[in-house]
Amino acid sequence: MRRVAHYAAELALVSPYTPMGRVIAIANQKGGVGKTTTAINLAASFAAAEVNTLLVDCDPQSNTTSGLGFAKDPGRISSYHMIMGAASAEEALLTTELEQLWLIPSHKNLVGANLELVDAEGREFRLREALAPLRDRFQFIVLDCPPALDLLTLNALVAADAVLIPMQGEYFALEGISELLDTIDRIRQGLNPGLGIEAVVLTMFDDRTNLAQQVRAELQNFFGEKLCATTVPRNIRLAEAPSYGKPALVYDPRSKGAESYIRLAKEIIERQALGTGLRTSDLGPQPAAVSDQAVAPAAGGIAEGAEAPAGQQGAAVEEIPAADEMDKTA
């Protein structure tokens, strides 16, 4: 734990004091981009900065809950009970291995919440109202959203101050970004005027490929300073840690994955200290992969037969070395 203490001291130097917690939703409707890994390890890194942090599992798959070492328990109070008004957020709190990290677990019944909330009064504000009594207790509240733009994600975005968007450095990761940004903008206009984009972070990033570099360049042109300088690499320890019910910071603090999330937490804390906010209206031209000409009006995705991103056509992607040649150092 000496290494964890070292990181805690480093983060504490940049950790600002805020009277009320900052709510950050980890959202991207595309699955497999590292939302849960980011939620767990970013929250753990905030807690390592010696500030009270709450992690809320809003995904019916409950991977954030199991990733912190909590087995399935049908009788346990969860985010489902909290959203449905059957229990308070205070009653759902669980302590974790990290002294200043708390968890509100998920439950498979959240799958049905999308249907149960359809006709409910104030359905979009359930999570925000439930978390309101806790905002002065936690400096950071991290929401792990499901991979869909459904009522659960809507509740998280209405409750949030900002959205952190994890993205892979691959072409398909760009396809749904316009739909997500449109959703954020609509929520700002009608439900949560203060909602902004905290940052965009590249996950499972391999900077040895031309494609990853091209995707990063497209995102840099579009998001500008909101694209994090920190990237999260593919890392064995990050993949192993959830099976042990631990954040990477606890499982192996010397791993590249743990160190990258420490840097990400530091970068976000510094951004908060500087007070840099971003609205979707402040963004530059859309990335070539999601330009207006390529987006289908009905689906919000890429139109069939759309051209590849500028600079990508005919570009050769560097081959990743064979498995026995890859660097496996964690």
From TrEMBL:
The Low complexity compositionally biased stretches are 303-319
Q: Where is the AAA domain?
A: 22-196
Which CDD domains is this protein grouped with? ParAB_family
SUPFAM superfamilies, per the entry: P-loop containing nucleoside triphosphate hydrolases
* A Pfam family assignment: AAA_31
Ranges where the record places region Disordered: 303-330
The protein in question is named AAA domain-containing protein
Give the species.
Candidatus Sulfotelmatobacter kueseliae
What lineage does the source organism belong to? Bacteria, Pseudomonadati, Acidobacteriota, Terriglobia, Terriglobales
